[in-house]
Amino acid sequence: MVVGGTGNTSIRTYHFHRDTVLAGAGTYVDNGPYNFIDEIDQTPFISICVQVINTGAADMFFSFDGVNDHGRVVPGQDLTQQLRREKRIWLRGVAGNAYKLYSW
Fold it and tell me: Which residues contact 84 (CB under 8 A, 6 or more apart)?
């Protein structure tokens, strides 16, 4: 996925991606934090956009502080928060529920 930039500047876009299942049921402690670290050079970054895609069969929730729910994603749907400046994310839901997570 290529996002933003013209290729004519020294500023590049960072990317983070996970395509897996929830490790534990119900709590943010079991599923995070996932720090946004670039896939190419392992640079930690602050996102400008976060996308959670629920490819599983149960509702899932996400948090940017590990305590409060900041969003819910129903099965088969995705949620994209643009201009969301975050360093990490926590997830919760039914153990084994599949999801994809992107930040850039």
Answer: 47, 48, 49, 50, 64
Residues facing 72 on adjacent strands: 61
Q: Are 64 and 88 in contact (CB under 8 A)?
A: yes
- Domains for the chain: give ranges and CATH numbers: 16-103 (2.60.120)
User: Per DSSP, what are the bridge partners of residue 79?
Assistant: 52
Show the CA angle centred on residue 77, arms to residues 84 and 51, nearest 5°: 20
Which residue carries 């099965």 as its tokens?
75
- The sheet with strand 34-35 has its strands ordered as 34-35, 88-93, 60-63, 71-73
What global pTM score does this model have?
0.86
Chain segment 15-36, per-residue pLDDT in tens: 999 999 999 888 999 999 999 9
Amino acid at 38: D
Can you tell me whether residue 76 is helix, strand or coil? coil
Q: How far apart are CA 64 and CA 49, in angstroms?
A: 13
Q: Region 52-81: what's the mean pLDDT? A: 96
